[in-house]
Design a protein that fits this description.
Chain lengths: ~775, ~775
């Protein structure tokens, strides 16, 4: 086993101090002289025709410089949500931007936006899945759904899903996909026990502290634009802008500003609109969404309905799985239901299955990616049913899962083999945890204990990185991956390890799209896995270049050299050393005889490195009020290799708290007319420090085959099983299974009013 | 011979339109919110002790925020001119900054600067070479000259000079160097004809349209600084800043803004002072010099005095050369006289020589690099003497030069062999030119015709470049070399040629020091030669990467592929093609199977590629007023390979016009107390379009061994022989040799008052 010198040490985030002291400059903090502030004018209706617009009063508002409507913008095909720009004659969700007011101050823009008069002809809106699927339902896209690939789903590894069946008939079903294996009817016929439930999950918002913020400034020298965006995906934003504006990619400089929370919600949304506005006015324009706009008109996680039916023999063998997954896409196709079904049929070994996914359009904002898209919903349904099955069979719920958990090489839903992963290992880690071993004591105090397990495939994407040695002997790594949750600190550790320097001698520079080596979006638990691999490759190559120069100068063979404490030295010849700084200086001066140390890495790893988390929740349920309190939450996770345990624990905490939100608190409410009921954080309930329990973390390391030093993506797995674990704990505590997220006090009270369904599976252990 | 598709075509400069329409944003055009404007408080004396300073009135000026003096700054060792910062107790040239006023507007800063009261104790100042060298002269650095390498000289290839002899005794001689070959005394004893003259050249200012401009902004997130500078040398500026500020290089982001003229004068000067001011106030600070400050307190070309003695036999063989070169360094060591001597002894084949160089300190602003530093002075002296020798021997002046001109392999002054170069070829090109062949007609009209030849070694420096393929099939080249005179357009042509694309599909991005691959300063005629070579290497590697992907996709061997019209196709199989854009897209998307096309080049070419220019001037001399008018100017130049003939012709024009300034107009005048007499462009005479003659260019191509496609640096050679050619033309016209630059009407009149020295050599042909 290699001894590591940089990775594996708990390392505070490089930008942590700047973030907590307020020194970090976010997109909205960048002063741009001559800036125009933009404000959206939101549609008042979920579905309406726009009969007339009167902008005179808005234009007369002091400070207002312009009011743009669809007619001021090019008529681009709305083949992505961000190309809807401004509503063109018709609105399809309440809050959809119908006009953009540009003013010399935020306040003036707000005043002007309130003066835009729009005459609507309201139309009936299908707001729920049932309404959208009903005979004669109003159609979101009566003339056909605009075609276009959705980048966000693929970003999260969703491209493994079965090919979507084309749903081209005039309906609100944008896509449907079925995946099967074996003989489901025979499987159920062979079953002794069948559990069947229908689950629903709410539309949930990513709720970053920093709202979507975009600024664009025309560059008179090139005819292009500089765009500052709080985005996880600067290269995707550049592509979208290049296509919408018809500009070469190189004439667009997309600068990804520090992201104040992304969680999948910031792959690009209002950049084309803001860029077109900046072009129209030939001035810098910035749109920084208000919290209301953020909740009204971005791209939250979709609501889902999952019917799951599971059969097993009395000996515990699973015989069949049947499921139907409906995903409320909102107004624009997300095309992800097939992937949800794919996940559902992949985690446990079931010989016969049939899962059907259906994407349904409704008159609501379009759904988008949110940390492990769909997986919390899928696992909530699947692991609730597994838990109930164990209970019905009288099996230990942990051993039951362990028995059926997929292992590396087992077939995924599409028949491909599972790559190396640690689903079993995280369950074993939980089995060994005091919270599980001593669960009887918790129960004795009236608490319920539940577990669940789930994971994420991990995305892949080509990535590149560059690495140079500065004159002061420091290593500079240049990447295009936005920092989220400490990825940059991880890159510094990787480069340090690969080159042979302490991490504090490494500087990681995140370039803009004009100069940075390509990397995909920061998301999909793939950044450390892919960009990290490119960084390691670049740092190793830079080391080789450095040693080649040193070998020449020291008259030694490169393979006899080592780098220790900033010195290159000949093994066994302690006197023969060179400072890294001195080597670099020889490459960066007039008449220098050695080429600069400048190396790159470029990778296209296509093998996935799934990450799994098993979690245990210990809950108290107030039998009178229905209030659920999570008293203990154990998060075990396979991270492959813990590059920075401190950052990983942060991810495990953050994921589990967001899972807690899914479980108990968060939902975007809409009334019958499609009006948002939860337009503030007073109405939309996020778990805060008062709600979050003490979280215990267990890091499991099952090294991945291809990740840097065995690392796997760690961002998404920890959010996946939390809701299921809490639901199973509530079942354990109350004898009632809750099937709708969030499990609000009202829902718990309603469940408590029903008869007990039997002791929880956990109690039978 | 290869057929080129991109290089060799006259190509308008990529940034030309932006420059002429005013779209280019220079350093002073960048708005920085919260900016403080800086104004220098110049010393009133060339040499004085500062007894007291009173800043109260300045601080009371409306808009003034701070007044910094030396005591507010760290006491750094002044081991470079830019580290003089603010005068510390003593001033050593008139105009030296003694304080820096920071205010909210330029006007307020100016007002404040005029309110700073400084009490001086004036001291005697040595202003001229003779005063500085006199017994008991006041010493510029009485406690010893601060040590430090001067980067500008090396930038221009000056590092070939002989090692300077240490001049450590208490004197104003900062360095002295002698180079010899053979037996000079015997050489002169064998001579039948000896020509000896003393030449002087004036202190000349680079006189860029854009003055030195620097802005610095502290970065609260890193503790570092972002610095915008109109500099030719961002990486040198970064190094200087890192050393002065004690910061890691990576925490300094030096952004080289478009340079509005450099000519060697912008290698870095006020960046440390401005950066320290920004740090002291924790606000952005900008200093944009006024024209007066520019002329008072930057780093013009040094004044020189050259005594040259040349001996020859009657048969025309040169027997000996003896020379003494004194360079007026101003207040700070430039250490370049040895290099001047090295040049002087290298151009012609002389078996015996002794050249001595002496750098002399005076109480004037420090001298610095200006287009081919020293070469115009050296060739003015050397080619005047050669011309006179030809005349005295009755030889054809062109054939005489051709006979003695160094050829590749001949020894340089230090004994190293001349690399491949075209000194003879440019003379031959001139010989074939109508202006030379038909010189009799010109003379018949009373004009004089003179020629001269000179060149520049060409610098070398390690350089790197990166190259990527965008999703739209365009190639992006990322470099760290500032654009001067179209170098960027040249890189686009080189990359296009190497990759196989039209130049308009290439984008060249000049990055800042945080992200760009290292390149040295743009200067020394080395950028195309070095960075260009790295660009070619990177583009070729990117092509190979692209073809490897295409080979896989097309199921063909990479060596069977070609790139034509943005398509990769299999030779002989016209149907099998792939668009470059489609290849790139496969490397830049989720789940992509191919690594991004991302390549680098890194070179450390140490062989030089000298560039030579031979010029012919046809002049009219007004016998009454002494006014010289150049009626015709022919510039023949060896460029190795003409990558962009349009840009090269621009260089030849620009160099020759600056040579015209050296010859006839430009001089920085100082009075006996060291006060600048030429503080405006009314007093300092630059040639304009009225003075410039029609210039005829002849491009000669003697391919260099190592340059990209045979290219040589072209920036410096055209300024070198102009003054000499004009002086020889004046001699031809008047029978008098002028030995002092500039050859003003007064000097011409004085010469005309002397008896004729004989017919010019030209007339004997």
């Amino acid at each position: 086993m290699t001894e590591f010198t940089a990775i594996g040490r708990p390392t505070p985030l490089i930008d942590g101090r700047a973030r907590v002291t307020g020194a970090t400059r976010f997109a909205a903090d960048r002063p741009l002289p001559g800036l125009l502030h933009a404000r959206l004018v939101p549609s008042l209706y979920a579905h309406a025709r726009i009969e007339a617009m009167d902008t005179a009063a808005a234009l007369a508002t002091p400070g207002v410089v312009a009011v743009l409507t669809a007619s001021d913008l090019p008529a681009v095909v709305p083949s992505s949500r961000s190309r809807l720009l401004l509503a063109r004659g018709r609105v399809i969700f309440a809050g959809q931007p119908v006009a953009l007011v540009l003013a010399t101050s935020e306040a003036a823009a707000q005043d002007g936006a309130q003066q835009v008069r729009v005459q609507y002809d309201p139309q009936p809106a299908a707001v729920t899945l049932d309404e959208a699927l009903a005979e004669g339902a109003p159609l979101v896209w009566p003339d056909g759904v605009p075609s276009g690939e959705n980048v966000s789903a693929g970003a999260h590894g969703a491209d493994q899903g079965a090919a979507a069946e084309a749903g081209k008939q005039a309906s609100n079903v944008s896509s449907a996909a079925t995946q099967t294996r074996g003989d489901v009817a025979a499987g159920f016929a062979a079953a002794d026990v069948i559990v069947e439930r229908v689950f629903t999950t709410a539309m949930v918002h990513q709720s970053s502290l920093e709202t979507h913020t975009v600024a664009a400034q025309p560059d008179p020298a090139t005819g292009g634009l500089t765009v500052w965006s709080s985005t996880q995906a600067p290269f995707d934003v550049r592509q979208e802008l290049a296509e919408v504006l018809g500009l070469p990619e190189a004439d667009l400089r997309v600068i990804a500003t520090p992201v104040g929370g992304g969680f999948g919600g910031k792959f690009g949304l209002y950049e084309p609109l803001v860029a077109l506005a900046a072009r129209a006015l030939n001035r810098p324009v910035r749109l920084s969404l208000t919290r209301l706009e953020e909740l009204l008109a971005t791209n939250p996680a979709p609501a889902t309905r999952l019917r799951v039916r599971l059969g097993a023999r009395r000996d515990g063998e699973l015989t069949a799985l049947e499921a139907e997954v409906q995903v409320d896409n909102g107004c624009y196709p997300f095309d992800i239901a097939g992937f949800f079904g794919y996940m559902l049929a992949s985690f446990y070994r079931v010989p016969n299955f049939s899962v059907r996914g259906q994407d349904v359009l409704t008159f609501k904002p379009s759904a988008g990616a949110y940390r492990a898209p769909g997986a919390p919903c899928v696992i909530f349904a699947l692991d609730s049913v597994m838990d109930e099955m164990a209970q019905r069979l009288g099996a230990d719920p942990l051993e039951f899962r362990l028995r059926h958990a997929a292992r590396p090489g087992d077939p995924l839903a599409d028949g491909d083999p599972w790559p190396g992963m640690g689903m079993a290992e995280v369950l074993e880690a939980l089995r060994d945890h005091p919270a599980w071993r001593e669960r009887a004591q918790a129960r004795a105090r009236g608490r319920g204990v539940g577990i669940a397990v789930g994971g994420w495939m991990g995305g892949t994407e080509p990535a590149a990185a560059a690495c140079a040695l500065d004159r002061d002997g420091r290593l500079v790594v240049h990447i295009g991956s936005v920092d989220l949750t400490g990825t940059t600190t991880g890159f510094a550790l990787l480069a340090a390890e690969a080159f042979g320097l302490p991490a504090e001698k490494v500087r990681v520079i995140i370039g803009d799209t004009a100069t940075a080596p390509y990397s995909g979006a920061t998301g999909g638990s793939k950044v450390t896995y892919t960009t990290g691999a490119a960084v390691v490759q670049a740092a190793r190559a830079a080391r080789e270049q450095t040693l080649a120069i040193a070998a020449d100068l020291l008259e030694a063979a490169a393979e006899d050299l080592e780098i220790v404490d900033g010195l290159v030295r000949v093994r066994g010849a302690p006197g023969k050393t060179l400072k890294l700084a001195d080597i670099a200086r020889k490459t960066m001066r007039f008449g220098g005889q050695y080429a600069p140390v400048y190396a790159h890495g470029r990778v296209a790893e296509t093998a996935h490195a799934p990450g799994f988390s098993a979690q245990l929740a210990e809950v108290e349920v107030d039998q009178e009020t229905g209030v659920v309190q999570v008293r203990r939450l154990v998060v075990a996770q396979d991270v492959g290799r813990a590059l920075n345990p401190l950052a990983i624990e942060g991810q495990m905490h953050g994921g589990a708290v967001q899972g807690l939100g899914w479980a108990l608190y968060e939902q975007m409410g809409y009334d019958a007319q499609g009006q948002l009921l939860t337009g503030t954080w007073q109405d939309y309930m996020l778990p805060g420090s008062m709600e979050a329990p003490a979280i215990e973390t267990v890091i499991v390391e099952v090294p991945s085959e291809h990740g840097p030093f065995g690392a796997r993506g760690v961002g998404e797995a920890p959010v996946v099983p939390t809701a299921a674990a809490i639901a199973n704990a509530i079942a354990d505590a109350t004898g009632r299974r809750l099937t709708d997220l969030p499990m609000t006090p009202a829902r718990v009270c309603a469940a408590l009013a029903r008869p007990r369904e039997g002791v929880s599976s956990g109690r039978s252990a």
